[in-house]
Structure formats: structure tokens, C-alpha cells
Amino acid sequence: MSNDTTNKSFSRHLENNRELFIKTGVRYEKLDLTNLLFVQTEGKYIALHFKDGKRLLRVSLVNFLKESSHLNLIRIHKGFAINTDYINSYTSQEVTVLDNEIPIGRSYKGNWVNYLNKTNKKNLGR
């Protein structure tokens, strides 16, 4: 299957959904994206990391983030996007998502700072 076909199929399945069916061998597996911890690039694939393991999907990180804008994902590195629901702690260099330390890239530090400012304003406004 070509990457273009995969991306079209991916778009139809993910749009405004919190679940995604991916093909594993001859079987389709349903993934609950609300349990997604972070996304990592792996060549032409992205790895969706969950508490119980990871699943590979042949789509670019840019396209995945574009199609999953309804999820609480933020890109903090060239090769990583994190689910903000699972952040445990952070430093100026990395974010800890459960037990996974994800680096903050220089080019994406602005995304991270914007997220922190927005979150702090929201929390102070309560």
C-alpha cells in the first residue's frame, strides 16, 4: 500500500475520533488514543507509545498531528509529540511522561513555553 493511500485511510479513521483501527498482519486492532502517552518518529513510521507497549503506523508525524488536533498532543521535538494529559514533571531540557524522558528541542521550545503559559493562565483563572 502506498504512503498516500495509507494517509487517506488514516485520515478517514481518525478524524474527530478517539479510537483508531490499525492493521497488524491480517487483523485490525482498535487503539484507544486517549491512552496515548507520546508519539515518536521512526524512519517512515511513527511509534504510538501506550502504557502497554507501542504500535507502528506509516504516516508522518506532521500528518498525524494535523489529523489528531482534537487530542491533547503537543510537539516538543523534531521526533516527539507528547500527550499533555500524562505529563508528570519537566525541566528546561525534558518532559517526563510517565517514566519516559522526552527531550525538548530548541526549535520547539516555543511550543512548550506557549503550552505552559496557556496552562498557567487557565489554572490561575479558576
Automatic annotation (TrEMBL):
SMART domains the record matches: LytTR
Family annotation (InterPro entries): LytTR_DNA-bd_dom (IPR007492)
GO molecular function, one term: DNA binding
Top-level taxonomic group: Bacteria
Residue ranges of domain HTH LytTR-type in the record: 20-87
Pfam families, per the entry: LytTR (PF04397)
Protein name, entry field: LytTR family transcriptional regulator
Source taxonomy: Bacteria, Pseudomonadati, Bacteroidota, Chitinophagia, Chitinophagales
